[in-house]
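Lab manual, section 2.4: Encoding a predicted structure.

Procedure: take the sequence of the chain (124 residues), apply the prediction step described in section 2.3, and record the output as structure tokens. A sample record is shown.
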Amino acid sequence: MSAGRDGAIEPTDTRPPGRVQVHERVIGKIVTQASAHAIGVARGDVHAEVSEWGGGIAVRLSTRLPIPDLADTEAIRAQAPVFEQMRALQTTLAHDLERMTGREIRRISVTVNGAVTTERKRVR
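Recorded output:
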């Protein structure tokens, strides 16, 4: 930055010396929160592991999958199969996580370890 004629500071194109380091633990928290949001479950229903892999980041997710109430046959018929949902999730998460972290996402492995049904609201 340099001072202009009127004393205002003008930005320059040079970066200040130094480095930026973001720990894997921080990336892991970002991955956990973004994954829970994308899947549609609480953050506690997602376990994420992040590691350096192939010049980028590898993500391993273990999550519960939201499913409609089993009594709601129309919602069940309308829902895509689990494998299709997870493939779409991998693509969406890779794009979103690359944007959020600034790092290339080289791999996303997803393990579905349970299901969560959405609660039906009672009408009084």
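Check your result against the sample. The mean pLDDT is 87.
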